[in-house]
Q: What sequence folds into this?
């Protein structure tokens, strides 16, 4: 099964149109009322709620990609897909990292009310987000240890992303910004499909090698 996580202030509704036509994909929302204060705690709850297994593939946008990495850490998954996301806190914009110490002073509720004046699906999702969740997870990002070594991280990134600047290790760079999962859905889906074919091919090779060794 393929599990897809949204951004921090978003919901599964960010994956519309082309995304919804995919088979074998489950688009998750953040757990309602989650009061944990770490990405590790959030990942553990998602693993428990959805019975995530080692052979599953987790895909995440922005903050969701960081949670996807942590799920991969905990379930020892061989790979993970990030869309405009980070593998370590050091990849997040330095401006945002400087704001981290004063996140408790940020008027999240006020900003959410102001978002009512902004049209569009993303603004609607942000208005409905839990302010406590946003504050806790903003702090959690800068306490997170990052993805473990030895994992295949397939990275799709926007060339003009200012929230998480384009990493040198990006597998595919799209002519867009931070919201490419929404603005360039077709390109993201095509890249993920190709990555899945690569995984399946590698899995067949590994299985074949095991059979040969058993027959020796």
A:
């Amino acid at each position: 099964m393929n599990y897809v996580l949204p951004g921090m202030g978003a919901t599964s509704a960010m994956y519309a149109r082309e995304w919804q036509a995919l088979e074998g994909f489950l688009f998750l929302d953040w757990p309602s009322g989650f009061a944990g204060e770490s990405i590790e705690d959030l990942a553990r709850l998602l693993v428990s709620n959805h019975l995530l297994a080692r052979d599953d593939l987790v895909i995440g946008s922005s903050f969701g990609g960081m949670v996807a990495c942590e799920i991969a850490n905990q379930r020892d998954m061989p790979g993970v897909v990030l869309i405009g996301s980070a593998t370590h806190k050091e990849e997040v914009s330095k401006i945002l990292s400087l704001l981290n110490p004063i996140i408790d002073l940020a008027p999240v509720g006020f900003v959410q009310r102001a978002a009512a004046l902004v049209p569009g699906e993303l603004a609607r999702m942000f208005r409905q987000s839990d302010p406590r969740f946003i504050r806790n997870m903003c702090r959690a990002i800068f306490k997170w240890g990052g993805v473990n070594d030895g994992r295949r991280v397939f990275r799709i990134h926007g060339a003009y992303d200012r929230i998480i600047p384009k990493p040198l290790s990006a597998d595919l760079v799209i002519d867009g910004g931070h919201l490419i999962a929404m603005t360039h859905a077709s390109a993201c889906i095509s890249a993920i499909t190709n990555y899945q074919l690569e995984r399946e091919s590698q899995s067949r090779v590994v299985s074949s090698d095991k059979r040969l060794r058993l027959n020796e």
About this structure: The chain has a mean pLDDT of 85. The longest strand covers residues 152-158.
